[in-house]
């Protein structure tokens, strides 16, 4: 145990890291698409809060993505890359 008499940190087994669990193992394009989806949803939340109006297609994409929990890629989560166009434009303009 650490901080106890006789503790030898060099005898501790090394920690292993599962490379599949890291978000950095995903390609940059997938991480950008995921970020675009989040930003797109947040922009709609803000628009609804400020004006009471929303873009039905964007809200539909966000709501459907919540129920696609077993998808392998962001494209599968959001349906198509074209559904993320508003979020990608927001990222570009930021």
Explain what this protein looks like in three dimensions.
This protein has a domain at 29-93. The protein is mainly alpha-helical and 94 residues long. 52% of the residues lie in helices and 0% in strands. The protein has four helices and no strands. It has helices at 28-51, 56-66, 74-78, 85-93. Helix 1 (28-51) packs across helix 4.
Sum this structure up briefly:
By secondary structure, the chain is an all-alpha fold.
Please mark out the parts with pLDDT under 50 across 5 or more consecutive residues, or reply none.
none
Radius of gyration, in Å, reads: 21 Å
Global geometry: elongated
* Estimated share of beta-strand residues: under 5%
Number of helices: 4
Helix-strand topology string: HHHH
Ends: how far apart? 49 Å
Average pLDDT works out at 85
Helix content estimate:
40-55%
Q: How many E-type strands?
A: 0
Topology:
Blueprint: H1 28-51, H2 56-66, H3 74-78, H4 85-93
Task: Name the features.
mainly alpha, 94 residues
């Amino acid at each position: 145990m650490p901080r106890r008499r006789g503790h030898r940190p060099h005898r501790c087994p090394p920690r292993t890291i599962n490379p599949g669990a890291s978000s950095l193992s995903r390609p940059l394009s997938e991480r950008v698409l995921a970020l675009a989806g989040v930003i797109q949803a947040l922009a709609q939340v803000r628009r609804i809060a400020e004006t009471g109006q929303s873009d039905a297609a964007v809200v539909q994409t966000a709501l459907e993505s919540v129920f696609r929990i077993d998808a392998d890629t962001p494209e599968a989560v959001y349906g198509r890359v074209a559904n993320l166009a508003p979020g990608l434009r927001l990222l570009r303009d930021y």
